[in-house]
Amino acid sequence: LRRGAPPVAAPRRGRHVQGAGGPRAALQVSQGQQPRRQEDEGGGRCASAGRPRPQLSPQGGPFLYWFGPQPRICLLDYESVRQVLFNKSGHFFKIDAHPTILALLGKGLVLVEGTDWVRHRRVVNPAFAMDKLKTMTTTMVSCAEPLIKEWERLASSNESREVEVEFSKLFQDLTADIISHTGFGSSYKQGKEVFHTQRQLLALAVATLLNVQLPGLKYLPTKNNRLKWMLDKKIKTMLMAIIQPRLASNGGGYGDDLLGLMLEACLTTEQGEKGDELTLTLTMDEIIDECKTFFFAGHETTSRLLTWTMFLLSVYPEWQERLREEVLRERGKENPTADMLNKFKEMTMVLLETLRLYTPVMVMLRKPISDIRLGSLSIPKGNGIAIPIPFLHRDKEVWGDNANDFDPLRFENGITNAAKTPQALLSFSIGPRSCIGQNFAMLEAKSVMAMILKKFSFTLSSSYVHAPADHITLQPKFGLPIVLRPLDV
Ligand code: HEM
């Protein structure tokens, strides 16, 4: 394993066919349908699981690949990517979601379009304001605290004074715990049940993502569809049971968790004949879909950011030590506060570099709603457009010759100055549809990392196998076993 060697697909010259679809000279075609194994750059084992990965075009520029029955144009130049993501022309919509993804997220903020998106974003925005997030930091820290105590206990009972922990699964549980508490406050236990059911749906999504979607198939009572409908109904019933009592407590406040803040922003006063009447700007179904979105978008991605940060800090002990010094300098052994976390400059640099090399969301998908020209490309209406984030994040022309190396110092002067193109970091996307939860995610990652760093030093377990796999988000296929050693020992 070369340290930090990122997972990218190597060019396979023999498989490229010129000239299908767009302009001949610029468009490469690759048949990305078969999942395949490959060596990573450093010779470590790198398994590409379950889903095809686009192949890197030797000359750069756009290329074409197939995902299921549909061709997709993969954009590799930043100018086209900016045009699509800023969408000033209003031509680019999100691609129709796979039915199981739709069941996972519902028609929440991630998937809605047009005036519906404006309405949803207006309601959800206030919940993610920095002053609200600051009060949630205490919750984030207190969710991590019992784990730290447990590891200390386990390490002290081991002769080696060390403890091995599998962090990939652990971070999933921890971020689910955090989103249950920050999202649903006192109803967090019911929230966690929603989370468990959503995980079952996610497993179904991963297993069926490559299935060809025949027209009408989603309505047939196949085994998978019946399971999906049952899980979907269960999630809806559980969320209604959380939301309805809140609405009924009208006047008593709706709570200072994400759900409460959203309900607050959702209520408008309508001037009716009988005086003021409170109505909701989102329907009950839409509120339910926003809750599903918080859950899925809010924990899966952040757990991946934490996982890969632990991985990189294990591989780069000098950076682990730098961050530990920063945490102890600012806060000593006390628990971190939001104001302190915002001062952690080196921690921010490491998290951004982790997002660049191991971006949790691998691809953003769009489709033009009418025929459109994008630079030298003519893209027919309805064709898929893919923005392959890992490829763009390793473009040497943009990130410099060390694009494949772990170098947090590139973010020393902020995101804008980290690359030759401003806004080159796409992990949270850019433009109006960029991630609404990015400050939440960064605060959460900093809280958890600060809690770990001030108590333990850590190294990769000898059982670790480097196999980043695209399971909707990027994760280590065989988990992330890490050996923790309490600092006081
Ligand atoms: C490291 C953590 C995270 C990463 C890498 C991430 C990444 C992204 C990306 C790439 C998008 C744009 C997707 C697209 O346009 O196709 C997005 C959108 C979104 N994210 Fe995140 N996200 C993270 C954390 C969160 C959290 C914590 C929440 C909520 C609690 C959240 C909620 C959302 C929502 C609601 C959208 C849709 C925004 C819109 O379309 O207006 N995300 N995220």
From TrEMBL:
InterPro entries: Cyt_P450 (IPR001128), Cyt_P450_CS (IPR017972), Cyt_P450_E_grp-I (IPR002401), Cyt_P450_sf (IPR036396), Cytochrome_P450_Monooxygen (IPR050665)
A single GO BP: lipid metabolic process
Binding site for heme: C435
Location (main, coarse): membrane
Region of interest called Disordered, as start-end residue ranges on this chain: 7-57
Subcellular location: Membrane
GO cellular component: membrane
Keywords attached to this entry: Heme, Iron, Membrane, Metal-binding, Monooxygenase, Oxidoreductase, Signal, Transmembrane, Transmembrane helix
Listed cofactors: heme
A Pfam family it matches: p450
An MF annotation (GO) of this entry: oxidoreductase activity, acting on paired donors, with incorporation or reduction of molecular oxygen
Domain of life: Eukaryota
Family: Belongs to the cytochrome P450 family.
Protein name: Cytochrome P450
